[in-house]
Amino acid sequence: MGPRGYEPAQSVVYLEPAELDELRTTAIKKWVKGTTVLLSDRLLTGAQWTTVAQEEPSRGRGTRRITLFSLKGGVGRTTTTAVLATHLARKGTRVLLFDLDLESPGVSSALLEPEERPEWGIVDWFVEDLVGQGEDVLRSIASEPRWAQDFSGGIWIVPAYGQKPREYLAKLGRVYLDRPPLASAEGPETWTSRLQRLVRALEDVYEPDIVLLDSRSGLHDLAAAVVTDLQADVLLFAVDSDATWTGYRILFQHWADFGRIRDIREKLWMVAALIPDQGRDVYLRRFRERAWELFREVLYDEVPAEPPDQAAGDWFSFDLLDEDAPHNPLPIYWTAGLNALTDLRNLEDAPVRQAYYAFFERFERLWPPLGGGHDDGFAPALRSS
Fold this sequence. Notes:
- By secondary structure, this protein is α/β, with parallel strands linked by helices.
- The protein has helices at residues 17-23, 77-90, 107-111, 122-130, 134-137, 168-172, 191-206, 221-228, 242-257, 261-264, 280-298, 336-339, 349-366, and strands at residues 27-32, 35-40, 64-70, 94-100, 154-158, 210-215, 233-238, 268-275, 330-333.
- The protein folds into two domains: 2-40, no CATH class; 47-301 and 314-366, 3-Layer(aba) Sandwich (Rossmann fold), CATH 3.40.50.
- The protein has 13 helices and nine strands.
- Strand 8, helix 11 and strand 9 (330-333) form a beta-alpha-beta unit.
- The relative contact order is 0.16.
């Protein structure tokens, strides 16, 4: 800690074993001249990335959760959320979509007409839940858009805000508050636990086959909760740039430093966004190589040349060219037609197929669609040579 700390001989803090257990998620053990030094840093923000929630025992219906995350905006994450929801609903899947980019809501504005918005939104629920009134607004924070009502499945959208977003900024400042303890509780309920409870409650109401969680971009605590605390598979949107790979390396290394890699790595899947129209094969090959290098160095197991008697499936490691590896990206191709779309409520088949045919093929191989619809969704386009 340099000038911010005392010499080891001058600083002793006594902690009971139980207290050490409580600090384990925010502690790093360092070795200094043979002496164990426990460094605990109390953070106002950023601590969420060190927690990875385990599977909820109450989730027995098999609902899948998919988080769409990016380090930066402008990579097509919101468009993909809308396209994927539409594609799955047309094929008979029941989709529940959360707009959790609360500081910059996009999906709900793009997919719901003003008059279709529910009375309340996610931010309103967080505020009302603080005073024990969350249940009163729970059934008034989701809407089914008219344009999706003829699909074999269905889409229910949970927007960031409702029809009358009064005092939205003031309410936004209360989202991240812990809920005061109830009479039967031992302590306050964290805001991430409240988010988990909101998602579970709406799953009980709408019984979706799949939940799509459109996350905020960047390393904010809200993004951390959506990535780590909702037991979701995570689509990591990226473009092939030094800034992208440096950002994801920082995040992956953070999980490694806090011993969380094994808890999160099997849920991470790369998405190559905005693949240029020219030189696609070269771009994708370079993208896959750089993704593999990052995953191999931080996420994958280092398999010895002569591994001991251990089942092959116990090693979390993939070859560069493995088609089903998480570093091998789900591709989204840039097309002029898709880029020109101004209304995500009326998606045109041709540009969507051109941009997403390979994405859909890979997505449905990883997460086979549920439901009994007869529509092919955005059926794969013919591939050009």
